[in-house]
Structures are given as C-alpha cells and as structure tokens.
Design brief:
With 341 residues, the protein is α+β, with helices and mostly antiparallel strands. It folds into 3 domains: 156 residues, Nucleotidyltransferase, domain 5; 95 residues, Nucleotidyltransferase, domain 5, CATH 3.30.420; 64 residues, ATPase, substrate binding domain, subdomain 4 (Actin, Chain A, domain 4). Helices cover 37% and strands 29% of the residues. It has a 6-stranded mixed sheet, with helices on both faces. A 5-stranded mixed sheet has the order 13-12-11-17-18, with helices on both faces. The longest helix has 24 residues. It is flat, with a radius of gyration of 21 Å. The protein starts with a helix and ends in a 5-residue tail after the last strand.
Length: 341
C-alpha cells in the first residue's frame, strides 16, 4: 500500500433526486441527506445543504434560494450539483483523507451527456477515478441477489425523480424501462389535487408529508382523515382543509397506474426463460416509493407475480454500489463502460 492509498478512501454515492447517500469503504453508509442546497442568489455561495437546507425550503428570503440540483435522477444544474457533491464528500472525508475511487449510481436511462456531467462533477470534487453503475444493478447487489447467475431477477426502483424497472441476469441488464414518474410526480399530483378540489395552495414539503402519512395504492383497512394547512387561493389567507386517504389515493392513482403499466411492458419484452425465473422469484421493490402503502399488493394483483419490498428500500442502491466498489474485480462487468468516440 502506497502513501497515497493510506491518505485516500474509496466511496460509493447514490446521487438521488430526493436524497444523496454516501458509503465509505470499511465503514458502510456514513451520509444520508436530502439532495437540497441553499445558496446566495448573488454569489452562488452554498450556505447550507442536506437536512439544514430542507428546513429552509419554502421559507427563504429574496437573497436566498433553496434548490434541488438533481431533476429526474440526473444533474439539472452542473455548478450547484458539483458544489453539493464536493460539500457532501468533504463532510465524510475528514482530515487528510481524499477520495481516490468513487462509484456513482445513475439511472439506467441516462444519456452520454448526463453520464459525462456526473463523471466531471465527481472528478472536480476530488475523485481520481470515477465508475458509474446503473441504479437497478446496484439495487440488486444491495438486496443480496447473485447478479452473476444465469437467472432472471426483476428490480423496481422508485426514487424521487425516476422509476427504474429492469430485468437482470449474467451481470447485465436484459431489458429496462426508465419512467420520469416517481416520488416528485406523486407529490405534485397531491399539490394539484388541493388546488383543483379545495382552492388550497400547499408546498412541496406538505405534499410529501401527506403522501407518506396517508398515501396508498389500494384501499386501506381503516381509511384515515387528516387536517391540511395551506393558503386559500381565492381569499389569499391561511386555511385548513380536511382530507381523507380515499381522496389522496385517487390523486395518486394515475401515477401508480403508469408505474404498474411500466412493469407490465417490461415483462412483455422479457425472454421466456427469464419470465419463468421472475414467476418463481418475483419482483423486488426498492427506493422511497416502495414505502407507499399497498403498492406491492397493487402490483401483485395486476401481474399475478410475487412482489417483495426490500428490507431497507431506501439504502439498497448505495449498499450495492458500495459492495461493487469494495469488490471491483468480482463486479467488473456490472459497471457502465465508457464509450470510445
């Protein structure tokens, strides 16, 4: 081991639209914070990020902007994203340590330009070597699937910006569907529902909280009613509305239906031998969307397949990326290869 190896550490990053998770070699997951940055509008200097920035969301003054530099699973603002990645890496790399090798999980449907943006951001943040891995592949490794085996496995990864559906076998993705419908779209559907039905304007954080508290994909044993605070769009003053889980399920139904249809389309394109494997092994759901009440039941009802929610769906991707980073030789085939022009 050289002196540079001693003063450097390998890390894996799940750079999500909603949350960023970082896994450090030998330590496991050391950071799990929202992918949000608060910065000065004039100087673009980052003032806060992660949990602290999320607390400011919707409450900022005119000189301050709270922003999510990731949209639909990819970098929307290169400069701010780079600053965010750099700050998060600095947070976990204390003292003399720098990042030598960085593995970043990206949506399977990313373009070459988007891949380049992720590589460049990680390199500018101090990485000497950058490797990319598709999120469904990382998730499969993270939940303990033997991805090298000649057996088909289906992963459904519902994140903040994208839903990734992939069939995996022999260290590769056989077929995939990448939908730009996920947690953010569900939050937005709830916001629009309140505008249309209650003339009530609510913020993103409130929309997300409602989804987590009473959102569902199938009828609940006991339907829930909650009070929601917002601004009256007609009178312009604060107002409270009472809403039930039945109404929120209806608001989310179009998005849930599109995800279920995506699963069906992926199954239709799957070779018969692998279809037989999936019939035995079922679909594994990971990502924040896996926590939507009854989603596994809804998919089970519509596909007649066994459906399993991962034990810890929010960390499956970063755990898998970390495992691949710690065993580069074993998992060499799973990384996204650079295209030579």
């Amino acid at each position: 081991m050289g002196i540079l190896d001693f003063f450097s550490t390998d890390i894996a990053i799940d750079l999500g639209t909603a949350n960023t998770l970082i896994y450090v070699r030998g330590k496991g997951i050391v950071l799990n914070e929202p992918s949000i940055v608060a910065f000065d509008r004039n100087t673009k200097k980052i003032i806060a990020l992660g949990n602290k920035a999320k607390e400011m969301q919707g409450r900022e003054h005119r000189q301050l902007r709270v922003y999510r530099p990731m949209r639909d699973g990819v970098i929307a603002d290169f400069e701010i994203a780079e600053g965010m990645i750099r700050a998060f890496i600095k947070k976990v790399n204390t003292g003399l340590f720098s990042s030598r090798r960085v593995v970043v999980a990206v949506p399977s449907g990313v373009t070459e330009v988007e891949k380049r943006a992720v590589r460049d951001s990680a390199e500018h943040a101090g990485a000497k070597e950058v490797h990319l891995i598709a999120e469904p592949m990382a998730a499969a490794i993270g939940v303990g699937i033997d991805v090298e085996a000649p057996v088909g496995n289906m992963i459904l990864d519902i994140g903040g910006g994208t839903t990734e559906i992939a069939v995996i076998a022999l260290s590769g993705i056989v077929n995939e569907e990448s939908l730009r419908i996920a947690g953010d779209e569900m939050n937005n559907a709830i916001i629009q529902f309140f505008k249309k039905n209650y003339n009530l304007l609510i913020g993103e954080r409130t929309g997300e909280a409602i989804k987590c508290e009473i959102g569902s994909a199938v009828p609940l044993k006991e339907e829930i009613t909650i009070q929601v605070k917002g601004r009256d769009l007609v009178a312009g003053i604060p107002k409270t509305a009472e809403v039930s889980s039945v109404e929120i399920r209806e608001a989310l139904n179009a998005n849930v239906t599109q995800i279920v249809e995506g699963v069906k389309q992926t199954l239709e394109r799957t070779p018969p031998e692998l279809s037989a494997d999936i019939l035995d092994r079922g679909v594994i759901i990971v990502g924040g969307g896996a926590l939507l009440k009854g989603l596994d039941q809804r998919i089970r009802m519509e596909t007649n397949l066994p459906v399993h929610v991962a034990e810890d769906p929010l960390t499956a991707v970063v755990k898998g990326a970390g495992k691949a980073m710690e065993n580069m030789n074993k998992y060499s085939k799973v990384f996204i290869r650079k295209r030579s022009f």
